Amino acid sequence: MSSVRQIANELGISVATVSRAMNQRSGVSEETRRKVLELAQRHQYKPSMGRKPTNIIGLVYPEEPVKSDLGDFEASLLSGILRGVYEKKHDLAFISAARDKHPDETYTQFFHRKGVSAIIMRSLGDTSLVERITSEGFPVLLVADRSEDPAVSYLDSISHDTSRKAIEHLISLGHKRIGLAMHNIVDTDHQDRESGYRDALHDAGIKVDESLIVKAEANTAGGEIMLTRLLEQEHPPTAIFFTNPMSTIGALHKCLRLGIKVPKDLSIVGFDDSVTRHQTFPRYTAVCQDAISLGVEAARWITRAAQSDEAMPIYREVRPTSFEVLETTSYASVSPVRIGPDGELIRTV
Amino acid sequence: MSSVRQIANELGISVATVSRAMNQRSGVSEETRRKVLELAQRHQYKPSMGRKPTNIIGLVYPEEPVKSDLGDFEASLLSGILRGVYEKKHDLAFISAARDKHPDETYTQFFHRKGVSAIIMRSLGDTSLVERITSEGFPVLLVADRSEDPAVSYLDSISHDTSRKAIEHLISLGHKRIGLAMHNIVDTDHQDRESGYRDALHDAGIKVDESLIVKAEANTAGGEIMLTRLLEQEHPPTAIFFTNPMSTIGALHKCLRLGIKVPKDLSIVGFDDSVTRHQTFPRYTAVCQDAISLGVEAARWITRAAQSDEAMPIYREVRPTSFEVLETTSYASVSPVRIGPDGELIRTV
DNA sequence: TCCTACAGCGTAACAGTTACGGGCCCTCAA
DNA sequence: TTGAGGGCCCGTAACTGTTACGCTGTAGGA
């Protein structure tokens, strides 16, 4: 209905100018460009490229560039997304949201210019971008996070109940001082895990000791740091819940290096996005989410949204996680270990 | 120069028919379609989509669908490729080579139809596809493998010399019976590592014992299997070279579980694509390749190839790997351990 | 005053795609 | 036998967006 020529007529300019304005080419005054983009937005203009429909799904990260090392979670999620997208005969393109978007053009215009008909978004803690894109009416699915905005569709996994179950498991083994080692970037997932931790302790009548909650980066170094920080305390915990796979790995290796026997001296509950829990020594008890199936499901929904012409109903799903007991949790130690000022191991009597 | 209308004229048909034939739409007889595609290939026809240049780089895997779990190497490689592609203001799309390519259309036509101007390919052991695409003149770079075909451009890392250095390191520590644990899918990388192993032993005057060379899948289970198979022998090795990160991890954990002291009882040299060697206990001595920088470099070259109009000169580079001594190699044990029929540990005197 | 340079824009020709309709052939019923 | 329908194949023409080329006006300097 609305074409380049229509916009040109309405503004009393030529189609060439409109096209130039749309594609960030030179030879257009800033004022004309702004008017064109503004009118295009009002008309919900979609370039239809000789009418040929495109079937590319975009995968958008807010950061630029994508952080150098795709973690285990991102890799598993991507595997799942690829599988789902291929199943529906679409392709997948990585799109950088920040790189070459013109400030005056809307995200809708930007994605159309890239030939992308719908996107899957990661938030990494900041959901403002997905809310803005949703408000433009462009089909977008937030994956592995949630948004307060009631218009945003998302697919997340919920770890509150399972985290709570994990802490209850520890309490049932006699643990009373339980540490919580979290990612220092707060998203809803980590809030979930923290509230599960607090609820379990509260219901068991154990007062939360804020000094037992530590935060660091979600990598092996962060795991070592958090373990050390917790065990250097005068009254160290007898069990720790790590909310991230990499920090769990780092902590387990630090224990091996220091001579801390897991689970005899210290019980550890970790988090797993795929099969990492089976690849450590000892295999760790974990709250598990299935990142692959999360990706598959996200891809299935977004391909449907890309194909349907009218707007999809808002979609919100939180998938349950599971709790798997392996080899790193046991009865609370009667003589908890702590780390001395020189890094040596001290057994409290 | 050659347009849809030109092809239509030459065949005495209409542009609509040509367009339909190109895009796998119905309403064209098979014979006409074949004639159109054949002539388009002869004319080196490139659809130029209203003259608008596309700048999407394709990432192509021969298998369909992409194997469910992107390994550490694939994830690191992808990180690097993304970084390089973004740096050059291009986008990256995953393309499935097998999914919806029409048998009669060439790969060049297929990629143009997808809006992809150049591709990076993974081989997974079979280089026939990249050779075929190269022969069509489409810009393609094979990454992390090599091809015999002199027309194929590739970027690989060579591990022969470094593998040899690793074995020489073991020999200098007094090891004489050294096991080789390989991936059961043979590509040039693994051939490299095997020949480095053989050359080092040969030059040291040690006869290769074929029973010390075992193969399995490149995952943790494969590592455990290979370790077991080697140590069950009557004259077990005192050191093992694992040519894959995941099998190295599996073997190290199996050692912890069995009570085999590394490196006192058994020395292990592993392989690393990123930073895995620092995330095990003990940290393992390894032949290291940098998958991220491999990806960055591949992306830089292919974006240049995508932008230049004429064909690029053939590009071939093999990047060196490095050898890093960490905590899993030491002097050859005087009383090598072996695994008994019931899985128990036996110390040979 | 005249010349040059450049930014901004329009005309027209180009690219590829598709709605519509028209032959052609086959089938089936009157 | 003939007419009606229907499906396949294809062409005409109208549509999409893009760009080479040239025009106009303005600013600056010789």
Residue share in helices of chain A?
25-40%
Annotated CATH architecture of the domain at 160-289 and 324-347 in chain A: 3-Layer(aba) Sandwich
Radius of gyration of chain A: 25 Å
The number of distinct β-strands of chain A equals 14
CATH fold-level assignment of the domain at 160-289 and 324-347 in chain A = Rossmann fold
Indicate the low-confidence ranges of chain A by residue numbers: none
Question: Which outline of chain A best applies?
Answer: elongated
Tell me the span between the first and last alpha carbons of chain A. Answer: 81 Å
Greatest interface: A-B, 48 and 48 residues
Assembly context of the chains: homodimer
Summed over residues and divided by their number, the pLDDT of chain A gives a mean of: 89
Which range does the strand content of chain A fall in? 15-25%
What are the salient characteristics of this protein?
349 residues; homodimer; alpha/beta; 6-stranded mixed β-sheet; DNA-binding; Rossmann fold; elongated; 6-stranded parallel β-sheet
